[in-house]
Specification:
single chain, alpha+beta, two-stranded antiparallel ribbon, 3 helices, about 30% helix
Length: about 70
């Protein structure tokens, strides 16, 4: 997608640092956030940047919220 839109793609600035359980059956936002706590690491190069995060499943937005807090 990034290539077709001619925008840079950076796969190194945000990393998942721990393995987690599958989240598809966890419907509660608070439970998702608790599971994802301390799972992501990012470099400070993401500050003040527009970020597009692709995930295979979107239910509550917990992954996006937790990942972008880093």
């Amino acid at each position: 997608m990034a290539q077709s839109m001619k925008i840079p793609m950076n796969t190194a600035s945000l990393k998942k640092t721990k393995t987690t359980q599958q989240m598809k059956d966890v419907g509660d936002f608070s439970a998702r956030v608790a599971t994802l706590e301390s799972v992501f690491a990012s470099d400070r190069g993401l500050e003040r940047k527009a970020v597009v995060l692709f995930d295979d499943l979107f239910q509550t937005g917990a992954t996006m919220n937790v990942a972008l807090e880093r």
